[in-house]
Design goal:
By secondary structure, the protein is α/β, with parallel strands linked by helices. Helix content is 36%, strand content 13%. Helix 1 packs parallel to helix 2. The chain contains 6 helices and 5 strands, in the order βαβαβαβαβαα. A 5-stranded parallel beta sheet has the order 3-2-1-4-5, sandwiched between helices.
Length: 195
């Protein structure tokens, strides 16, 4: 997906919303759309994940550092805690929460899914299907984009370093530990990237 540089807009209201988890991928997405001239606002969803507090703190710090509109935050709960690892339906839930709970139905909705993961909800097929649903639900008013869909982690890290993005403000630990546990998939990913 190629996102063209936006001409100056006379409308100061955010027209681009980034699902901002506080991690490297969503930070890069926020920077990318902001650098194209889009008025951008992060949306953080606390769905009961163990890392919610640390992720929200990171998302707030990134919003300020990247010059985004003030962070929107949603909270949703289920009766039991989430297990570690893959959470089936997570990205679909985040996307539809943005539409249903935050009322986002116009503009761009950006998600930081990327290549190189085994998860279905990070695949090209998933993104095509869910983007069609988002468009159909909103009569074409909202477009779902995933700028990193064909990028793998090394390319993401290279871009973040080249752009001097604030990697120190990001947080990714599935255990929600502070300091991060160092053992979960997200921590191992960060270690491989040198974060």
């Amino acid at each position: 997906m190629v996102l063209e540089k936006r001409q100056n807009s006379s409308n100061p209201i955010a027209d681009t919303f980034v699902l901002l988890s506080g991690g490297v991928d969503s930070m890069l997405c926020a920077h990318f759309v902001r650098s194209k001239g889009y008025i951008t606002q992060g949306l953080f969803v606390d769905y009961g994940q163990p890392a919610a507090r640390n992720e929200r703190d990171a998302a707030e710090a990134l919003s300020r550092n990247l010059g985004l509109r003030p962070l929107l935050s949603l909270t949703a709960r289920r009766a039991t805690e989430f297990p570690g690892g893959e959470i089936i339906g997570r990205n679909a839930f985040l996307i539809f929460s943005a539409m249903m709970l935050a009322g986002i139905n116009r503009g761009l909705l950006v998600i930081g899914v990327h290549s190189g993961t085994p998860y279905y909800d990070c695949s090209l097929g998933f993104m095509r299907r869910i983007a069609d649903l988002v468009s159909e639900y909103t009569d074409g008013g909202l477009q779902l984009i995933a700028p990193l869909l064909e990028w793998e982690k090394p390319a993401i890290l290279t871009y973040a370093k080249e752009q001097n993005l604030p990697l120190a403000f990001t947080y990714s630990c599935e255990a929600g530990a502070s300091p991060p546990c160092g053992e979960c998939l997200s921590c191992r990913d960060r270690r491989r990237m040198g974060c």
